[in-house]
TrEMBL record:
Keywords of the record: Acyltransferase, Transferase
Pfam families reported for this sequence: Acetyltransf_1
Lineage of the species this protein comes from: Bacteria, Bacillati, Actinomycetota, Actinomycetes, Propionibacteriales
Origin superkingdom: Bacteria
An example molecular function term from Gene Ontology annotations: acyltransferase activity, transferring groups other than amino-acyl groups
Record-given protein name: Acetyltransferase (GNAT) family protein
Protein source organism: Nocardioides lianchengensis
InterPro entries registered for this protein in UniProt: Acyl_CoA_acyltransferase (IPR016181), Bact_Acetyltransf (IPR050832), GNAT_dom (IPR000182)
CDD domains named among the record's database cross-references: NAT_SF (cd04301)
Length: 142
């Protein structure tokens, strides 16, 4: 693998992150990312968004969200030319370490139906699919 650096995202990464996710992320059936969503996340929890970079460029991301009750993993994405080298697995492991240290007893990830890369990756990381729950949503209007 190329020399990969892992670090928390900062506000200055916001534009590059939006561009990265548009290219490398799972983008169906969710609101479009905006830079201010990232700065709001970092204001709430400065260590929540973990980046992998190579030569200063973003090649991977994961959000390890902890609200004091639940631990959610979001935005797991690896740039296509860096996939299948263990980077996704590494990001998940680091995110889990953070969440465990914060007190999480369980981790969860939402995967869009039919996302085979997501399914394979979470399964490989030891996650199992729950078929007895459905997410219910309503736009906030905000
Ligand atoms: C999902 C994703 C982050 C995986 O990143 P990655 O760096 O390629 O993952 P890894 O190399 O760490 O793979 C870990 C394991 O996941 C499984 N896996 C990952 N990609 C796979 C594929 N294309 N086919 C089959 N298994 C796969 C394998 O078991 C793999 O272990 P192995 O390589 O030792 O066989 C990447 O494919 C991606 O960015 N996809 C688009 C965004 C997305 O769908 N994210 C998930 C949202 S829920």
């Amino acid at each position: 693998m190329d020399e990969v650096t892992l670090r928390p995202a900062v506000d200055d990464d916001a534009e590059a992150l939006v561009a990265f996710w548009a290219f490398a992320g799972e983008n169906e059936s969710r609101p479009t990312d905006r830079p201010e969503m990232i700065t709001a996340l970092l204001a709430h929890d400065p260590s929540a968004l973990l980046l992998a970079t190579v030569d200063g460029e973003i090649v991977g991301t994961v959000i390890a969200g902890w609200d004091g009750w639940r631990a959610h993993l979001y935005r797991l994405a690896v740039r296509p030319d860096h996939r299948r080298r263990g980077l996704g697995r590494l990001l998940v492991e680091r995110a889990e370490e953070r969440l465990r240290a914060l007190g999480a007893g369980r981790f969860d990830a939402m995967v869009l139906e039919g996302n085979e890369l997501g399914d394979a990756s979470w399964r490989a990381a030891g996650y199992t699919r729950q078929d007895n729950w459905r997410r219910w949503v309503r736009p906030s209007g905000g």
